[in-house]
Amino acid sequence: MKLTYKTIIQNYFHRFHAEVSMAAFTRTNPGIRDQSTPEFYRFWMIQEGGGRLQIGGRCLDLQPGQLLLVPPGTRQSFTAENDETVGLYWCHFRATIGDMDMFELLQLPISVVPSEPERVAGLFCRLIDACHSTALTRELHIRSAMFELLACYLEYGGFGESSLRENEPLDKIDHVLQYIEEHLSGPIAVEDMARLAYLHPNYFIGYFKNLIGYAPAQYVLYRRLERAKELLERKDASISDVARAVGMQNHYLSRMFRHYTGLTPSRYRQIYHQTAAHCEQAADKEDNEW
User: Fold this and answer.
1) Does domain 168-274 have CATH number 3.40.50.300?
2) Spans of all domains in the chain
3) In this model, does residue 161 exceed pLDDT 60?
4) How far is CA 177 from the centre of its chain?
């Protein structure tokens, strides 16, 4: 996946917040018909029975094992089959993810079929238990279960780069991110980045932050430090070489790197290779035991 899309998607996930208002398991009456235009997202996991969901101009046949993410703001009609009761896990939530809607941006399907439906049902049970909990950690458990449900849905939904290619804001920012990657060893001015996006520098700063989650200067520093980490993981580059490669003086790299990771560059390198060696030995030991 291109850096542009990966960066923006990860930023949306980083900023994602879900306010769960209700979670439950219910069984409908046979032949029930429900029409609404909800103001919140709805997750459904069909467990028993079947029916039909009409949303916008689409019509979906519902059957056990389906996981659905139903968006807000559109007229929806749910009908159970005449002689069947539909049993389903469900939750209502509101999502705040910035000015652009991530679900619309990714062109996600309404319905997916998880390969491990028991796992998804277990997550709904966790979410329901958390919503009824009085523990001080209640909100943490709600968020944990909700984030895992969302991750399952996204993984089974198979979203990818193709769904993002025709988005104009992403096309504009793509050139900017590529320019940053190619010029990390030197100065990068806001004016130059704004010119690539055909925007005034003052407007560009807010535009960039809304899409990427960082102000341009913050993002450039972030990418310099991430590149430094990659270079430090190699054994053939000196600290001075790493500093030059990311456009920093040695002392400035050391100060910013420690602020970012809690470690000096040399200590980071040492710990990285110790960890890699330990994991390799542990994997070899596990293979030998088998």
Assistant:
1) no
2) 3-163, 168-274
3) no
4) 19
264-273: average pLDDT: 94
Q: Could you tell me how many residues make up the chain?
A: 290
Sheet holding 17-27, edge to edge: 17-27, 87-96, 41-48, 67-70, 111-112
User: Is 168-274 in the same CATH topology as 3-163?
Assistant: no
Distance CA 34, CA 70 (A): 14
Cα end-to-end distance, the chain, whole Å: 35
Q: What are phi and psi of 244, to 5 degrees?
A: -65, -40
Contact 71, 103 (CB under 8 A): yes
pTM for this entry:
0.72
Structure tokens at 56: 């916008």
What CATH number labels 3-163? 2.60.120.280
Residue where the block lists tokens 């990966």 = 6
Q: Are 257 and 231 in contact (CB under 8 A)?
A: no
Residue type (1 letter), 131: C
